[in-house]
Design goal:
Layout (H helix, E strand, L loop, with lengths): L23 H20 L6 H17 L4 H17 L11 H10 L11 H13 L6 H29 L2 H6 L11
């Protein structure tokens, strides 16, 4: 491409990798839905509803497994994301734990390293929530706010990735580009 050619339209890096089964969009949507539903089920757990813990602990890893990404990345995030989701059952004091599922999301979505700056958002949110919500009965509030902050951070990371792809020095961008050598998809 010459200097006068316009930049090509940005595409999700994971959408450029070859898939061994399924199509990109259905796998992305179903994987994300399973991760969110599994996380919500875990957070609905109480002493009277332990089946939610079991269901969420099976559904969330299934979501990570379905996402279109290199298999090594999908496998690497399952236990940390699930473990920190369990920790969030502790209430507002553990709202900072949203940072691990967010980091997992950034890893499987093949975001450049610069995007990981958004991890400060769920950490800051968790610090504020633990100071404001002292009672366990407010856990649903901390989970709702933490979820919204985490989703906003994921979208911010996507915006940073789009910006980075056009504004970063070419030598830095080329080291962070996705190629089929990065790992096959299942």
């Amino acid at each position: 491409m010459s200097e006068s050619d316009p930049q090509p339209r940005w595409r999700e890096p994971a959408s450029l990798l070859p898939l061994h089964w399924g199509a990109y969009r259905p796998r992305l949507v179903s994987g994300l839905a399973a991760i969110m539903i599994g996380t919500a089920c875990i957070q609905l757990t109480s002493a009277y509803s332990l089946l939610f813990l079991l269901a969420g602990s099976l559904i969330q890893p299934a979501g990570w497994a379905v996402l279109p990404a290199p298999i090594g990345r999908r496998v690497a995030v399952v236990l940390p994301a699930l473990g920190f989701t369990w920790l969030m059952l502790g209430g507002a004091s553990f709202a900072w734990c949203f940072v691990v599922p967010l980091a997992a999301w950034l890893l499987v979505r093949l975001r450049p390293a610069i995007c990981y700056v958004v991890l400060v958002l769920p950490i800051a949110c968790g610090i504020v929530l633990s100071g404001v919500i002292a009672d366990y009965s407010g856990s649903w509030i901390s989970f709702t706010i933490g979820s919204l902050v985490t989703v906003a951070a994921a979208w911010a990371a996507r915006g940073i990735a789009v910006w980075w792809s056009t504004h970063a020095p070419r030598s830095v961008r080329s080291r962070q580009s996705v190629s089929p050598r990065d790992g096959g998809l299942d």
